[in-house]
Amino acid sequence: MPSTLALRDCLPADWRSGRFLGRVLTAQGPSPILVEGGVAYDMSAFAPTLSLLADRMPVPASAGIPLGPLDALDLPILSPVDLQCVKACGVTFALSAIERVIEERARGDATAAAGIRERLEERVGGSIRAVVPGSPEAESLKQALIEDGLWSQYLEVAIGPDAEVFTKAPVLATVGWGAQIGVRSDSTWNNPEPEIVLLVDSRGTAIGATLGNDVNLRDFEGRSALLLGKAKDNNASCSLGPLVRLFDEDFTIDDVRRAEVALTIEGPEGYRLEGCSSMSQISRDPLELVRQTLSEHDYPDGFALFLGTLFAPVQDRDEAGRGFTHKVGDVVEISTPRLGRLVNTVVTSKEAAPWDLGIGALLTNLAGRGLLGQQVTEQVR
């Protein structure tokens, strides 16, 4: 993390007029905050967890204790979710399906990717951009690709009726703005995935959005889709932040639908990569992804939902034809004007700060602060 980078540098351009939820680490322990009028308020006495605070929105900032202006906040920023499940949707951009098929066909071997990419793009071309998932046209394209021997499980979730929805990280395992982000030490082909993440309350309503990095191991998942858990869920492999921007009259789901999500990677050896994910090209609407996530599954503490990315890095780093993979020390920045900048520094998952605040430890902390009791009783009712 660059030592000169401050939270004020990473806030949305209009942060003084928006309303935000987040979490900070106080001397007493993790606390949810509400930001209104540019001022942060500690809401822990009103709602001891971010999941409970999200369920109680809208709530006036006067229910909390003022901590001061957000841009002068002198407290560590944590991931802006706590008890929510962390879910993710994959291959939601039809174009990104091409890269997933390449991973699968190359069996995780980056050197074999270029030839497969050329053949697949030549066959599919622009047709995959125009097809509506689950439509008769999608079925016709599927049959044509099957006949060509190019069909894949990734194309099934890209243009078929059912979206891919998986669990990205355990409850409380995500890291926040400024934290180290982890890549498995035995991975040799991997990349960040810059995404917008919806915050959904226990009633199934999307109440806001934040930025996320769904770190992906292309070699592991490419060898077998059954390795998705190892490819996606490792120590510090999921970052969120810096804050959740709440939907209101000025910031709506339409802002998510048309967002341009930028990615910059600065390597320790001087390497630089820039990319962009345009949400206008998503194949499935964000609220349709929420609906499919909720299909026959309850989330009593709500959930955070990664919406997927258009971005897949192919810019060579060390050797021609091997594309991109992370190095320890990479600084990854994901940004969009209405949500700010999420910045993390890459380490291996073994070297990342250990995850030691689980559900039991959080409940013990909150009980010791006298923040449970009535709060829990009201939630049960």
Can you summarize this structure?
One of its GO terms (molecular function) is hydrolase activity. The protein is of the alpha+beta class and 381 residues long.
What would you say this structure looks like, in words?
By secondary structure, the chain is an alpha+beta fold. The protein folds into 2 domains: 7-91 and 163-380, Fumarylacetoacetate hydrolase, domain 2; 95-159, no CATH class. It is built from 12 helices and 18 strands. The strands form 3 sheets. Strands 1, 2, 3, 4, 5, 6, 7, 10, 11, 13 and 16 form an 11-stranded mixed beta sheet that branches. The chain has a 5-stranded mixed beta sheet with strand order 8-18-17-14-15, with no helix packed on it. It is globular.
Q: Which terms would index this structure?
A:
381 residues, alpha+beta, Fumarylacetoacetate hydrolase, domain 2, five-stranded mixed sheet, 27% strand, Fumarylacetoacetase-like_C, hydrolase, hydrolase activity, Fumarylacetoacetase_C_sf, metal-binding
Q: Say how many strands there are.
A: 18
- What is the string of helix and strand elements? EEEHEEEHHHHHEEEEEEHHEHEEHEEEHH
CATH fold descriptor of the largest domain: Fumarylacetoacetate hydrolase, domain 2
> What is the annotated CATH architecture of the largest domain?
Alpha-Beta Complex
Amino-to-carboxy terminus distance: 44 Å
What structural class do the secondary elements suggest? alpha+beta
